[in-house]
Design goal:
Blueprint lengths: L2 H32 L11 H4 E9 L6 E9 L5 E7 L3 E11 L6 E5 L4 E3 L4 E4 L5 E7 L8 E8 L4 E9 L6 E2 L11 E2 L2
Parallel strand pairs: 1-10
Antiparallel strand pairs: 1-2, 2-7, 2-8, 3-6, 3-9, 4-5, 4-8, 9-10, 11-12
């Protein structure tokens, strides 16, 4: 047989092998692509499981303010709120209020590690306790207006809520421990 006769016989054989390899490759990928389970807790985003209710922000002309409300987690695993932001403020921090063991004074400080929202549970942000601290307000927060807050979770997912601005006299906890006898800034949270 001549070489020209063998070439046509090789081409179909090579083509059949390539087709077989492609088919096996497609079958190997197909179960993975089709087995997506959107209800799986391992792939569910924290933001899809958390809602915020009764959210509000303390009215303020400048400086600082705070946001409050109840965060509820419908998921099977605890969720970690690690950050927040708002167009109303240069920074938003997750804060807690702790009582000084000596004088009983309340001191506000950033909460290490964020806020845990238990599985099928809730975490309450309230005056005198854990809250979202608005630092360096960009504009006055007027009673009755609405402000957006974006919540950021440890898995990188986010959700945005709208909170109403309300009047609130509140407790005047210290933002940081006084240094050299100087008064620390306070907020009405």
């Amino acid at each position: 047989m001549s070489a020209s006769v063998l070439r046509p016989l090789r081409a179909p054989r090579v083509l059949r092998r390539l087709t077989a390899v492609a088919a096996v490759s497609a079958l190997a990928v197909f179960p993975v692509a089709c087995s997506s389970d959107s209800g799986s807790t391992s792939t569910a985003k924290a933001a899809d499981k958390v809602t915020m209710s009764d959210q509000w922000i303390k009215a303020a002309d400048s400086g600082m303010s705070a946001a409050f409300g109840t965060l509820s987690n419908a998921g099977d695993n605890p969720v970690q709120l690690v950050a927040a932001s708002s167009p109303a403020s240069a920074r938003v921090e997750i804060h807690e209020v702790v009582t000084d063991g000596v004088g009983g004074d309340k001191t506000m400080r950033p909460k290490e590690g964020g806020l845990t929202i238990p599985a099928h549970g809730s975490a309450t942000l309230e005056p005198g306790a854990e809250h979202l601290m608005f630092m360096d307000l960009k504009q006055p927060l007027r009673t009755g207006s609405d402000t957006r807050i974006t919540l950021v979770f440890s898995d990188g997912s986010t959700t945005t809520v709208t909170a109403q601005v309300r009047d609130f006299a509140g407790g005047q906890e210290n933002y940081a421990a006084p240094t050299s006898g100087a008064e620390s800034p306070a907020h009405g949270g």
